[in-house]
UniProtKB/TrEMBL annotation:
CDD domains: TPP_PYR_DXS_TK_like. Pfam families: Transket_pyr, Transketolase_C. The keyword Hydrolase does not apply. Residues 12-177 form the Transketolase-like pyrimidine-binding domain. The gene is tkt. InterPro entries: PDH/Transketolase (IPR051157), THDP-binding (IPR029061), Transketo_C/PFOR_II (IPR009014), Transketolase-like_Pyr-bd (IPR005475), Transketolase_C (IPR033248). The keyword Nucleotidyltransferase does not apply. Belongs to the transketolase family. Keywords: Thiamine pyrophosphate. It comes from the Bacteria. It comes from Leptospira johnsonii. Its cofactor is thiamine diphosphate. Gene3D superfamilies: 3.40.50.920, 3.40.50.970. This is Transketolase.
Length: 319
């Protein structure tokens, strides 16, 4: 399987993919409703609001009410998409998400924008790096983090058809579109972007593009890497992880999240029981973010392709 490449000429934010997909869904389905907590310009739900004002609800700065209203609409037969910043939707409203949405297994879609340190200048208070952990710890919750604009659109359409609660994190920065052929997102299925025998790299979100660059750099040094885009953190694709962990014998995980509780933890938890191999984790090293440009923060915290290359080499040497 050949390597995929990123297009630097065309860049869009994953939050824009969310807004555009919502607009498409609204035009075709009268059961789609959208709720926001006074942040529709930032979450990109404003496009839906303008086109379908009778199916859009701004609850104000009240995230618990946002989730509670979404639960009520789900009980009334609608398919609600509720949005705010990741810090507020996964943090401030967590108890309502757990008890009012997931415990009764309601058909509510929680789409959180501004996740991770690429929120940038807003600083650590708004840079949510714990949401994968808090959301995937809730029983029966689906947790997803797309890699680019196009995958985000596919994800939003897919979760609209899925019956049950879902949490999706989208981001603020414009990212390169990933060139793909015949890719179709499926909940719980990894995208095999490249196959190699030396090291398995598993990434999601903004780190997928960085991992793609790293795979090319490793190849130039004679190291063949398998790259999985693990957009679905829960349920995680155990079959793909096991297959390539056995083939490669060493694993590197890459995420814009704390190394505790996120993608790396999910991979480690599974492999420790099924096929123990060394798993090295790239992510936030149990530290808060800082205020700065999103690109500068990726550099500062070591979430770049060169850091993936370093970990991959270390993983290969440890076999």
């Amino acid at each position: 399987m050949g390597a995929v490449s990123a297009s630097s000429a065309d860049q869009k934010a994953t939050r824009d993919g969310y807004g555009d997909a919502l607009h498409e869904l609204g035009a075709g389905r009268s059961d789609i409703v959208v709720l926001d907590a006074d942040l529709s310009g930032s979450t990109k739900t404003n496009k839906f609001a303008k086109a379908f004002p009778d199916r859009f609800f701004n609850v104000g700065v009240a995230e618990q009410n946002l989730v509670g209203h979404a639960a009520g609409l789900a009980l009334s037969g609608y398919v609600p998409f509720a949005s705010s910043f990741a810090m507020f939707l996964s943090g401030r409203a967590w108890e309502v998400v757990r008890n009012s949405v997931v415990y009764p297994f309601l058909n509510v879609k929680l789409v959180a924008s501004h996740g991770g340190i690429t929120v940038g200048e807003d600083g650590a208070s708004h840079q949510c790096i714990e949401d994968f952990a808090t959301m995937r710890a809730i029983p029966e919750m689906v947790v997803i983090c797309p890699s680019d604009y196009n995958e985000t659109k596919q994800i939003i359409h897919a979760i609209a058809d899925y019956k049950g609660p879902v949490y999706v994190r989208v981001g603020r920065p414009n990212l390169p579109l990933i060139e793909r052929e015949n890719y179709k997102f499926e909940i719980g299925k990894a995208e095999v972007m490249r196959e190699g025998k030396d090291v398995l790299i598993i990434a999601n979100g903004v780190l997928v593009n960085e991992a793609m660059i790293a795979v090319k750099e490793l190849e130039a040094e004679g190291i063949q890497a398998t790259l999985l885009n693990m957009a679905t953190i829960k349920p995680i694709d155990k079959e793909a992880i096991l297959k390539y962990a056995k083939l490669c014998g060493a694993v590197v995980t890459c995420e814009e999240h704390n190394v505790i509780g996120g993608l790396g933890s999910a991979v480690s938890e599974f492999l420790s029981e099924e096929h123990p191999v060394r798993v090295l984790k790239l992510g936030m090293k149990d530290s808060f973010g800082k205020s700065g440009t999103w690109s500068g923060l990726l550099d500062y915290f070591g979430l770049r392709s060169k850091n993936i290359v370093e970990l991959a080499k270390k993983a290969v040497q440890s076999k």
